[in-house]
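To close the chapter, one final illustration. This time we ask the reader to focus less on the individual chains and more on the assembly as a whole: which components sit near each other, and how the overall shape emerges from the parts.
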Amino acid sequence: MILRRSGLALLLLALSQGIWAGVLPEDRTDMLYHRYEGGGVTIDGPSILVRKQVGKSLSFVGNYYVDMVSSASIDVVTTASPYSEERTQWSLGMDYLRGNTTISTNFTSSVESDFDATTYSLAISQDMFGDMTTLTLSYALGDDVVGKSDDPTFQRDNTRQHYGFGLTQILTRNLITTLNVETVTDEGFLNNPYRSVRFADPLSATGYSYEPELYPSTRTTNAIGIRARYYLPYRAAIQGEYRYFTDTWGIESNTLSLGYVHPWRNWTFKAKYRWHDQTGANFYRDIFSRSEATNFRGRDKEISSLTSNTFELGVSYAFLKNGWNFIDRGSVNFSVNLLQIDYDEFSDLRTNAVVGEEPLYALSANVIQLFLSFWY
Amino acid sequence: MNITRIGRIILPLILLGGLSACGSIEPWVKPYERDRLADPIMFLDADPVSTAYLQHVFEAREGARGGEGAAGGGCGCN
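The assembled structure is written out below.
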């Protein structure tokens, strides 16, 4: 099961391209190879996006994305067996421009052996105030079907609704800002059918045993984010972002990032630092005092208290600047992200230390992206 | 960041939404003054496929989602 909190990536990807309402997104094709490696997990695969305008007011976009997973993560090593899996996702979207209004629709389907996710979305963007302000309202509905590889009769559903509000504002000739507010509600089977929690068990040789995790069947999350990008006195830009997040499970987080973009001849260099800090869910415990100690139980490290730091370096090279055949221009891009996550309440059980004295787990990962882009 | 500073950023954005209906206030950044904003280095999301992928990476490994304007999605990769 690769995808759990599924669904909104591609529909919002389509929206992000429509940030300048009143103008359809540029025709382009991107061919991306992505590779994540860290914590015993390797995930790689392609992502191909094609966008093409038809007539003066319609633009279509399609995306094909694959995750090929080989996992021997700490969760798998301590409670299950290493596995390989593949997730395939495709999406189709359409943007319709009329005057200063852009209406966007999108359909996304994600399929893997034990998890199917389908998402439908609709968004409306309106340009106003001399094209200095863009207002976007969005809604999405997602349906997930959760399965279990060792139990063909196991099938659970999850329904997700997404409400978004976005405001993009030009403040000065050098400064553009955005405000995004998003609420997402989930209802259904929200935990992972393979994952377990551990509880103190004096009868066990290790001092603890495992039982299946049990999450609440509803979750509502709220996030507010602001971004600002500023053109420096020389040809370069800085970008700052902040997001505050809270949900009904008790997770609260702050995320900050700062980036710098510097062009030089045909090259563009970028650097970015991102910091994220969150509290854990109310029902998260590294170890429970006994079996079925609480109504809801979770030991997923993603919902524990943690801090992550990410450094990104990227470089792009622009070519065919004068065009060739039907192509207007192209670029080749490479970036690497170094991700470090320190968990405050998730013990590393691989050490076989005495219960309560296990060292805390930390994750280091490399994320590589290599992609070609063409505009036509 | 204190509340006053947050207010300085968010309040103008909210007010601008309402002011846009007022014909008496002119947009103060004219179209011909937006050459720098039209520079690709000022695009908030110049590479949407890359942005979507990275947000997918973070969302799968952190408890938060949304509010970033572009992609969401998620992966509970073991």
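The first strand of chain A starts at residue 28 and ends at 38. Residues 4-20 of chain A have pLDDT under 50 and may be disordered. With these observations in hand, you are ready for the problems at the end of the chapter.
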